[in-house]
Amino acid sequence: MADGIRIPDELKPVDGRFGSGPSKVRPEGAEALAAVSRTYLGTSHRQRTVKDQVARLRRGVAEFFSAPDGYEVILSNGGTSAFWDTAAFGLVRDKAQFAEFGEFGAKFAKAVADAPFLAEPTVHRAPGGQAAFLRAEAGVDVYASVHNETSTGVAVPVRRVAGADPGALLLTDATSGGGSLDVDVSETDVYYLAPQKALGSDGGIWLALMSPAAIERAFEVKGTGRYIPQFLDLVTAIEQSRLEQTYNTPALATVFLAAEQLDWMNAQGGLAWAAKRSAESAAALYGWADRSDYATPFVTDPALRSNAVATIDFADGVDAAALAKVLRANDIVDTEPYRKLGRNQLRIALYPTVDPSDVEALTTCIDYVVPRL
């Protein structure tokens, strides 16, 4: 029986967590949180103890991404899903354009399409495993794309739209790409991400590097008198972030763990180090799949293969769901594919928290299990 397959301990990764979000939290981060549990957890988010950690997190993000002059690190509650609605209310004047090539880009496009006070957006779509790209269009005041599509493992460069109307903003969803993929933040106006991916933390907040133009747009849109729910008010998020706090109570553990992770990554060498480490993991996994008789990278174009999240298809004779079940029984967890994609595949996180040697061990374990299924 497949359920009875036991992988020898000497083949296993040191840490078997490969989830694409929530992702692996470094034990050292959890220990640091435990060390401040009596002075930090369960305390008021309006007091210095918590504000210092919010400030530490904002500084860490700015340093890690080499924030250009004038860019500010803004945060608020609710995760990326809340940011999509926040952007629909607070950044789009009238018309937006989207590059949609997976589940997460589609969700933002739907949020804007459903807004009764905005024009119907233009959406450029590509099937899973491929990429769609933005194109200059008269009248568009917000362009939006995804740096890394978490559901499919496709990554595209972050570049401004040539020929766009003056003043048009570019919003880049870095939910899972931010921290694993190289980026020049000056190429976008809003680079927003979540802490439960490369930042090795829990969920519950969103973070964004915002250009002066994006901040000005937020105040401009609010000044039109448009109804904006308080929880989704971007101006409120900006003003509260400048005070090193959030409008309502944040998840304190999330803030601390993300700040701890950024301090660790910055100490290792920042984004250059993190991107190189993720690239090493990607090379190990894709290289194995390219050599395999029964596994192939889902993304056929090597230039689009993500170094943050990898998707690997399996031949018809290999049941990837059964494989993932055996891996989980052996403490190698969260390798299951994105459910709505519906493919016979595994999805593997390659974030900087994941040691490349553990990725190599994972491939060894797969090769051990497949003939025994």
Automatic annotation (TrEMBL):
Listed Pfam families: Aminotran_5
GO MF annotations, alphabetized: alanine-glyoxylate transaminase activity; L-serine-pyruvate transaminase activity; O-phospho-L-serine:2-oxoglutarate aminotransferase activity
Gene Ontology biological process terms from the UniProt entry: glycine biosynthetic process, by transamination of glyoxylate; L-serine biosynthetic process; pyridoxine biosynthetic process
Region annotated Disordered, chain positions: 1-26
UniProt xrefs under Gene3D superfamilies: Aspartate Aminotransferase, domain 1, Type I PLP-dependent aspartate aminotransferase-like (Major domain)
EC number, UniProt record: 2.6.1.52
Pathway per the UniProt entry: Amino-acid biosynthesis; L-serine biosynthesis; L-serine from 3-phospho-D-glycerate: step 2/3
Organism: Krasilnikovia cinnamomea
Name recorded for this polypeptide: phosphoserine transaminase
Protein role: Catalyzes the reversible conversion of 3-phosphohydroxypyruvate to phosphoserine and of 3-hydroxy-2-oxo-4-phosphonooxybutanoate to phosphohydroxythreonine.
Annotated Aminotransferase class V domain residues: 141-332
Family stated for the protein in its record: Belongs to the class-V pyridoxal-phosphate-dependent aminotransferase family. SerC subfamily.
Basic and acidic residues bias locations: 1-15
Catalytic activity: 4-(phosphooxy)-L-threonine + 2-oxoglutarate = (R)-3-hydroxy-2-oxo-4-phosphooxybutanoate + L-glutamate; O-phospho-L-serine + 2-oxoglutarate = 3-phosphooxypyruvate + L-glutamate
Known cofactor(s): pyridoxal 5'-phosphate
Regions crossing the membrane: none
Keywords annotated in UniProt: Amino-acid biosynthesis, Aminotransferase, Cytoplasm, Pyridoxal phosphate, Pyridoxine biosynthesis, Serine biosynthesis, Transferase
Upper taxonomic lineage: Bacteria, Bacillati, Actinomycetota, Actinomycetes, Micromonosporales
